[in-house]
Amino acid sequence: MIFLLLILFATSAHTQETDSITVNATIPALYRLVLSKNNASFPTPSKQDFRDGYVDLSRGVNVRVYSNAPWRLSVQGEAQSTVTPAKSLSDFSWRIEGAQAFTTFLETDQTVTESNDRVNNFSVPLDFRAALDWGQDIPQDYTVTVTFTLGAIP
Amino acid sequence: MIALLLLFPLHLFAAMEETALIQCSVPQIEVLKVRGSAINLPDVTTNHLQQGYVGKNKALKFDVSSNCAWQVSLSVQESDLGGPNGYTKPIADLKFRENGTQDQYSFSQQPTVLKTSSEGTRKIRVLVDIGMAVSWEGDPPGTYGATIIVTLGAQP
Fold it and tell me: Do B141 and A3 touch (CB under 8 A)?
């Protein structure tokens, strides 16, 4: 007589195993501006410039704007007061290239342009103008510090 | 005289043969354990937007044990990464690669094979770099996310 003892050891088969995890990322409102140059010089004023009462610097700087949220580009100026006689900040003005009128610099922020669009390398070229006066502007270097600010639209 | 005849059933004392056959059927066994509870990618900065990518190396860690050739696949549960004000970031912007390798893949709801082994292994740890494509024009401020599903199975 043959006894057949069959011990079958088995568990239910697994065909696959899964597990999960969440991944998160937060993107804040981000702004970046890049100036084409940090120093810009007006052409040396000519007699004709003095007759005209101004000298222009076309595309004195190109501001490149990057933003993933609605943005505003502002500008303000500060005249260097170490020279005598100092040239008034109001003698200097700016405009977006192609615009009709120049806007006089102030020591407070003025809006250059703004947009609700997200932008990548949006270009804002600016012209500058310096008023000239035969009686005021003695030969010397005059400097204005121009500060650009890129941020949210309040 | 009484004759006593004992008839002895000799066959009852013949050698007996008994065979025990012990069989153990080992099934396909796989164990997968994802480590950690959530993956938080680094705070996005202007540099990330310039580079077009934010990532975290070894962000996803899991352990694999299997007694047969196996493969691990990654997928996501959602069809997009969510976003603010009706904007939805494409799920393909979420990327992964095995740490230390060059091949990078985009997540989708369909599993993509990350790693295979031609033999069983005992608790090896797999490290995965997780990242996300980002851009100035494409990504408004907001929180984005998805559920990563890790699947361990036998090689087909």
Answer: no
B143-to-A63, B71, B82, B110 alpha-carbon distances in Å? 29, 32, 8, 23
DSSP B42: P
The Cα–Cα gap between B144 and A25 comes to 5
Separation between Cα atoms, residue A37 and residue A34, nearest integer Å: 9
The interface pTM score, or ipTM, of the predicted complex is 0.83
Q: Output the furthest CA–CA distance in chain B (Å, rounded).
A: 125
Which residue, A21, A69, A18, is CA-closest to B40? A21
Please indicate if any CB of chain A lies within 8 Å of the CB of B96.
no
Contacting B residues, span 116-155, partner chain A, CB-CB under 8 Å = 130, 132, 134-154
pTM (2 decimals)? Answer: 0.81
Instruction: Give the pair of three-digit tokens for residue A3.
Output: 């006894």
Please state the φ and ψ torsions of residue B25, each to the nearest 5 degrees.
-95, 105
Residue B62 with chain A: CB contacts under 8 Å: 19
For A61, half-sphere exposure in the C-beta direction (CA atoms, 13 angstrom radius) is 21
**What would the two tokens of residue B7 be?**
């008839």
* pLDDT tens for each residue of chain A, 154 residues long: 333 333 344 444 447 899 999 999 999 999 999 999 999 999 999 999 999 999 999 999 999 999 999 999 999 999 987 777 788 999 999 999 999 999 999 999 999 999 999 999 999 999 999 999 999 899 999 999 999 999 999 9
The minimum CA-CA distance between B74 and chain A, rounded to whole Å, is 9
